Amino acid sequence: MIEIKNFAQWIFEQNKKRAEKLAIVNGNVSVTYSELECRSRKFATTLKQYNLRPGDRIIIDMDDCVEWPMAFFACVLLGLNPVLTSPNLPVKDLTKIIDKSSALAIITDGDSRMQLSIITIPKALIQLPADIYTDSYAYHPDESCLWLLSSGTTGESKCIVHRHASFFHLYNQNAQHAFLIDNNSQVLCTGKLSWTYGFNTNITYTLGAGGTAHLISGVPAPSKIYKICQSNQITHLVSVPAVYAAMLRYPGLLSNDLKHVITAAEVTPVAIREQFLDIYGHQFIDVIGQSETMNVFAAQYLPVKHLPGRRFNLPGVEMQIRDNSGNLVPNGTMGEVYVKTPCVAIGYHKDWSKSKQTFIGAWVKTGDMMTVDGQDIYEYQGRNDDLFRVNGHWISNVEIEIEILNDIDVQDCAVVALPNQLGLPEIHAYIISNNPKQDIKQRLQKTLAKHKVPRHIHWVSELPKTVTNKIKRSALRTATV
């Protein structure tokens, strides 16, 4: 077990022997581990001028860049609590996060943030000369440190508070087990640093192991991914199904050194898995997690290309499938996943009622629906909020969406149930496609049971997304059709 000390200090000490190795690369800009520590400590000195105290919340509101980790580590050196937000958040939504988190300051690269009623610290200050801050705050292991936002797929985002010790527990649990990252790894993660998935892949796992993190500013277009892969001998590609689908529509060359391809956020459809294997020769490591458990708690390692959504719990993680009353269900019966891990959050800030519903003793009530067989293989069925009953049958939106996504022309889709004029639920599918096809119902009738075929097909140009880029189906359920 590694010693729990200030996380920033630990990262720097871990990599003293790699001082001149590249730690972070963003296009033509890169920093070594020695430069990362030096500039983080200088920015900590700059931050001290704002009279922020240990435990104060400070929002990091920047697109991915080499300065982002410097801002984060400077905050941690001072004992501050970084709150991770997307720079794409509208000001009105960011204002709500400021109120929920009681943040006192924001580090930002956006001009629109300058009008906020808190201390605004421009990104440019990270580049200014300053003395090196030589100290580091001594967090208690159970002291609050990292603040994450929930995805908000069923409503507004919540502020999730994590203990300082969770960084170390998560590194031990996932860096080498789920993501297979070590000091030789060249990691490209398309998930943003403001998202739990991107943050931990780049910061906790890659920098913790002494590898090199490659960042993408702006939209992770396939052309950018191919360029980075070819120029930097990428060994780990970490992304989401929508990005992999885009790579199939616009094929290119990946790194010859690529060893592992990791996917998360949504279940990866069979068509994407098979075509990616055919074109690029790589199976997916399929992982699942959530911000309440700080990141991944289960993964699929085996090359089972016809079984999307099947995963095993990771070392140090316990999983149970329970019914609505909290009782264990028999193998093969669908229920809600409860997870026990040392990375469980403290709770939701300013939301005691929801905290009590989600954090049950040492367990997290995840909202994910799964089945488990006698070999402890867990199969994902969707979110409990997204399951619906039609004609007496319980239906998982995931199964229908996977069938729709098996059409290579489909970029993304979402399935929800909406009441008709009589108040009875009917299935609606919202589809983004390069080539809308009127015969999609006929195709689905061949692969789905009759009661699962969408009655209504909507061809759309975009889908509502959360701050972590997940489909916000709650917005579709309130749409007028």
Walk me through the topology.
Layout: H1 7-14, E1 22-26, E2 29-32, H2 33-48, E3 57-61, H3 67-77, E4 81-84, H4 91-101, E5 105-108, E6 119-122, E7 144-149, E8 159-163, H5 166-175, E9 186-189, H6 196-209, E10 212-214, H7 222-232, E11 236-239, H8 241-249, E12 260-263, H9 270-280, E13 284-290, E14 295-300, E15 310-313, E16 318-322, E17 335-340, E18 347-348, H10 352-358, E19 359-360, E20 363-372, E21 378-383, E22 388-390, E23 393-395, H11 397-405, E24 410-419, E25 425-433, H12 440-447, E26 456-459, H13 473-477
Parallel strand pairs: 1-10, 3-4, 3-5, 5-6, 9-10, 9-11, 11-12, 12-13, 25-26
Antiparallel strand pairs: 1-2, 7-8, 8-18, 13-14, 14-15, 15-21, 16-17, 17-20, 19-20, 20-21, 22-23, 24-25
Helix pairs in contact: 2-3, 5-6, 8-9
| Low-pLDDT sequence parts | 302-306
Count of separate DSSP helical elements: 13
Task: Label the CATH architecture of the largest domain.
Answer: 3-Layer(aba) Sandwich
**Domains (count):** 2
Content-based structural category: alpha/beta
Please bin the fraction of helical residues: 25-40%
CA-CA gap between termini: 55 Å
The radius of gyration over CA amounts to 22 Å
